[in-house]
Amino acid sequence: MSIRLRLTLWYSVILAVTLVVFGIAFYYFVSYNTYHVMKDKIATQANAINITSSLDSFDNILIARESLLGDEELFIQVYNYKRGVYQQTPNLKSLDEKFPQPDAKQVSKADEGFKHVKLGGKYPFLVYQHLLKQGNEVFGLLQVGAYSGTEDRYMSELRTTLIFSLIVVVLIAFTISFFLARQALRPIENVIQASNSIQNGSDLSMRIPRVGPNDELGRLTDTLNGMLGRMETTYNELDEAYKAQRRFVSDASHELRTPLTTIRGNIELLERMWPPALEAGGDAEAGDDDPAARSDRSRMTMTREAMHDIAGEAKRMSNLVNDLLALARADAGYEMEKTTQPLLPLVEDVARRAQLLPRQADWKIGNLTAIDNVQVNAHADFLRQLLFIFVENAFKYTPSGYVEMRAIRSQDQAGVIIKDTGIGMNNKEVPHIFERFYRADESRGETSGTGLGLSIAKWIIDEHGGSVEVSTREGEGTTFTVWLPIAFHGRMNEV
């Protein structure tokens, strides 16, 4: 429930309670004044009858004529409990009705006073009852009443008017309060809209419109606008720094590729030009006892080892530069050019080339029939790179056992599983393995790497609209499942 609606309901409830209390007080005030004159007249007549009447408790009860005030609007009835005899004024006799009286065995002091009764179910009367006693014994009942139809109708109409007025006033007040609350809380709506615009569009140039007086909400708006201004300045500075960093990484990667390529090419050329005789250890007949020959062979061996080291480091640096260049492309929003192509030949090509990778574990190619005739919308080179990353990662952390690749199918997605029986990971590390430069617990084994491979793999998966699942356990191995959406316009066989 919104603040605006809560405030409106609170105002309406308070107003309704106030009006109800006021209406009840007003109703009883009018009721008292309306029936007060009638009650005085009835009580005066009852007292006059009680004082001047001739009361016979054993034979009859006589109402003296002089006791009547001559008011035809008053209706008088006297009931003798001993004889069961009524005496009524002519106007009451003409109605052919009797005022109800309590039973003689149950009559008590509580039966005295004013009562509202209806004769014949349609004539409302206000009746004053007075017990007639001789000693402590009640022998009769004096009842003096007046027709109260006009007053009852007036009070009924007043009650209806008050209830209707209460409902109308509360509804009007609710509507007005809702509108006023909306106007008063409009700055908060502006704050919410501006926050949503910033959240959805990252537009920090958005400002909250300043409306209304300089109240608490106005000052809040000014404070938030100032905060947004500072955030925009800080964000722009960080964005510029980030762009400069991306440009540096991209430019440095491009610049480093050329000298590294030259170094690797020259090293490979020197290795191919290396004399086979020196590779075999030289001519034994050249004189093993000749110190000069042994020194030359030693220098040649050291040179050869240095060339191998240079070649290895140059290859490692080339891989690092290529990874950095791939991530720079990802940061720059590089869009891959994808085409629809069969998935099975691509996976089989990766499986064939994986046999040539340096490894200690066995390489197994499982069942790939699940993706037979399945087509995906993909960039072939990047998709191969994606699978090679997971395969090389599995070989790297599997010193013994095996690494297996197989395929599965689930509705509109095709999956490639790379499973190893290596050292595995702690489940707490899984959420971080796709972060850049993250190395999962390096103390578990001496493995080389930069921690960029899985970051590149995640970028390639995202670009292809796919996903990856990771299942791992320390000491038992890790399973990666790469899911790719199937292009349905290709011919497919369900498996």
From TrEMBL:
Keyword presence, Phosphoprotein: yes
Name of protein: histidine kinase
Enzyme class: transferase
UniProt-listed Enzyme Commission number(s): 2.7.13.3
Transmembrane segments: 7-30, 162-181
InterPro entries: HAMP_dom, HATPase_C_sf, HATPase_dom, His_kinase_dom, HisK_dim/P_dom, HisK_dim/P_sf, Sig_transdc_His_kin-like_C, TCS_sensor_his_kinase
Subcellular location: Cell membrane
Family matches, as Pfam families: HAMP (PF00672), HATPase_c (PF02518), HisKA (PF00512)
Keyword annotations: ATP-binding, Cell membrane, Kinase, Membrane, Nucleotide-binding, Phosphoprotein, Transferase, Transmembrane, Transmembrane helix, Two-component regulatory system
GO molecular function, one term: ATP binding
One GO cellular component, as annotated: plasma membrane
Domain Histidine kinase: 251-488
All copies of domain HAMP, residue ranges: 182-236
PROSITE patterns: HAMP, HIS_KIN
Membrane topology, as annotated: Multi-pass membrane protein
Lineage per the UniProt record: Bacteria, Bacillati, Bacillota, Bacilli, Bacillales
SUPFAM superfamilies: ATPase domain of HSP90 chaperone/DNA topoisomerase II/histidine kinase (SSF55874), HAMP domain-like (SSF158472), Homodimeric domain of signal transducing histidine kinase (SSF47384)
Reaction(s) catalysed (UniProt annotation): ATP + protein L-histidine = ADP + protein N-phospho-L-histidine
Main location, first listed in the record: membrane
